[in-house]
Predict the structure.
Amino acid sequence: MKKLYTLLTAVLFTAIAFAQAPSKISYQAVVRDASNALVTNQAVGMQISILQGSVSGSPVYVETQSPTTNLNGLVSIEIGSGNIVSGAFSAIDWSSGLYFIKTETDPTGGTNYTISGTSQLMSVPYAFHANTADSLVGGMSVTETDPIFGASVASGITALDTANWNNHTVDTQIDSTGIAALGYVAGPHTIDTDTQIDSAGIAALGYAAGPHSVDTQIDSTGIAALGYVAGPHTIDTDTQIDSAGIAAFGYVAGPHTVDTQLDSIGIAALGYVAGPHAIDTDTQLDSTGVAALGYVAGPHTVVDPTAFNGANPAVNVWSDPVPAPSSTGNTITVQSATISVPGPGKIIAIANVDVYCNAGCIANGDFVSTYVTLSTSPTASPTSGSHAFMYVNYLNTNSFSRTAVFNVTAAGSTTVYLRGTKSTLGVGTEVGFYRPQITLVFIPN
């Protein structure tokens, strides 16, 4: 089925001599075929009817036309200038009720009208009815029955009111009555322009007439009121603390011996057991350690390292010594490494680091206790659960390793930090971390 789209149903009128309205209505429409394509540059057949009363009312005028569509499928016609089928366009009584335009179209140019549409004529066409005003002779008496107008102020306007609209005088001067209305009293007035305050004004502010004595000195009564006691006083200007002052701080007179060495009791208090100990310096994981991390023996498919942004494994190595924390209990980041993963899985972090000590170790016979941990938090503090202990000799080093598993739930970057803490250190002893290394391996779920 073809379609007709009405673009403009507004009625257009062109003024002619004697201000008479032409008996024509401009009409435009767009024609499309069953595929919704425009019917362009093609003659179409049209029948136009003027219906009275309703969309199904009786036709008072019918005509046919054969316009040609343009490049945009648009047809433009003037209703009233076609081939008359019935009625007379000029005889339509536009003042008699509602009117509708019915259009029937044959897109093939014949009279087999397959497209039909009806729309109501709005107020513009009724300018035709204004022509009847030319035939009125004499005056016209109309009684206004609109209740809204009857209740308004406008309903009381008379011919005398309209005659006086432009005949009035505006007084721009204010008279004595207007001045009195503003609160002014008639008669002369004395205005005090003196800007000085007189004795009465001064008295009104609370000042008493006569000379006054102002005391600028403080006497003994005033001094006593401030809490000072009369009589001489001795002020101690000595900036040194004497034996009484020292005793007040809890110090006991006499020589003292300060023990700077830890004895066996002190060592035992730290949790160390007397006797020789075997320290595992092996930095390699055996099959038991690997199995403890959840790895199953046998062949495995390893994710393609190029499948995501970042190397797999991600390795971060420092070759220079890293100083230990400056005081007991402080923590530093010894090393860190970052890996980018494509999705959920596990990140295996393996860290290796050496602890070394300077000449102060052997000079003082000290030992050092250090703690390290692997964490995704840059502020994590190692605990005794990640403890590494060594009895230091001069420039002695102790190697140890730590392993951790981190679960990731989505793609992104993860940074793992190797954090170290100085636990116990004697006077004059310095330790540091040497050759720290972190290896990160990603295993997808």
The domain at 3-131 is CATH 2.60.40.10 (Immunoglobulin-like).
